């Protein structure tokens, strides 16, 4: 086979072996072959396709990205080997993976800005809107439940301990500019018409708008960050002995019936931030992370209420997430358009280990993929959603489905990205491979 077809004969040759974690029919034979070094990633993708398609009449071309020694190839093979000091005398392993190519498929319209999304359940999408309503979407375009009760825009939502698709009594939480959190239970089964439901518990204790909410991994508690600079912890189950019972009238025609709701009290408060707590994450039972407009990221010990890590970032921080290698890396974005990633396990000065520049406005959201150490998604007021991989400084994919500011983004079903924005749209982009 003429591997070097179309390349100058004087080009240097190197021995390579193609490897992949992809399953058949995307596996090449484990043999080495000689290729010219002055080719780029697209020519290497062509070579892989030629090998895979040999003797296969109905082979459909599949674009591949190229990874060598844990880094994406973005220059010629020759330049890469020289820059990384990789000897051309040995057999070089070249890993090929599917190109990230999101398909823009589905859009669901809301009545106002879509300010919050959670895709942690494979069975449904949870959204929050500036019209004060939460919504459950079974599939894009199919709203099964409308969560009524907030008197201000919803700013944050979270699924509490996601359950398997089709299970009953799903539990979710919402936070709002009305200073309250609400907890909801619903049947995740299909519904012909959107069902309006009321919260079973109302959580009041903040003195200003609630900006962010996160659930403890076991689902027993939730925490919330607010413009009052405090982080409050709450019981999430329905048997909160400390809660008082209040009566709230149902909103239904001809109905004066009253429905009891539990009003939960604050369990404890974490104090230290001096401006809005813009984001909270609860990755482990004993640990909460928070970000603030006071330019700091903090790690809190839930038992003692003290912060064991206080990183000054120099810019207002809008969003925060914990993931990556061993679920320990901190990713954050804010007012200076840069996504920074820290490894808190490294001793000494806390300098970012990665910095990604691609957006040109405030970063509103960043979320790690829950099954990949390398991938994360970000959203920005520049109207774009970007997919990143730690192995390259450039975005793997750019989604521009929105025509205005993007306010939130998350992963869904492992291979899709969901996002919401000022254009009142929930967008789902699918077919994203992170293998």
General description of the model:
This protein has 435 residues and is mainly β. It has two domains: 86 residues, Roll (Ubiquitin-like (UB roll)), CATH 3.10.20; 327 residues, Methylamine Dehydrogenase, Chain H, CATH 2.130.10.10. Helix content is 5%, strand content 47%. The chain contains two helices and 36 strands. It has a six-stranded mixed beta sheet with strand order 11-12-13-15-20-19, with no helix packed on it. A hairpin with a 3-residue loop joins β12 and β13. The longest helix has 13 residues. The chain is globular, with a radius of gyration of 24 Å.
What are the SSEs and their pairings?
Blueprint (H helix, E strand, L loop, with lengths): L12 E7 L12 E5 L4 H13 L10 E5 L2 E2 L4 H8 L7 E7 L4 E7 L4 E5 L6 E5 L4 E6 L2 E7 L5 E6 L10 E7 L3 E7 L8 E4 L2 E4 L5 E6 L5 E6 L4 E5 L8 E6 L8 E7 L3 E3 L6 E8 L2 E6 L3 E6 L5 E6 L4 E7 L5 E6 L3 E5 L11 E4 L5 E6 L6 E6 L4 E5 L7 E3 L6 E7 L3 E6 L3 E6 L5
Organism: Abeliophyllum distichum
GO cellular component, one term: nucleoplasm
Protein name: Ribosome biogenesis protein WDR12 homolog
Strand content: over 45%
Tally of individual helices: 2
How far from one another are the termini?
Answer: 29 Å
Main β-sheet, spatial strand arrangement: 11-12-13-15-20-19
Helix amount, in percent? under 10%
CATH topology of the largest domain: Methylamine Dehydrogenase, Chain H
CATH class of the largest domain: Mainly Beta
The major β-sheet equals: 6 strands, mixed
Q: What's the domain count?
A: 2
Low-confidence stretches at least 5 residues in length (pLDDT < 50)?
1-9, 239-258
**Count of strand segments:** 36
Shape: globular
Averaged pLDDT, please?
89
GO biological process, one term: maturation of LSU-rRNA from tricistronic rRNA transcript (SSU-rRNA, 5.8S rRNA, LSU-rRNA)
Keywords: Nucleus, Repeat, Ribosome biogenesis, rRNA processing, WD repeat
GO molecular function: ribonucleoprotein complex binding
Family: Belongs to the WD repeat WDR12/YTM1 family.
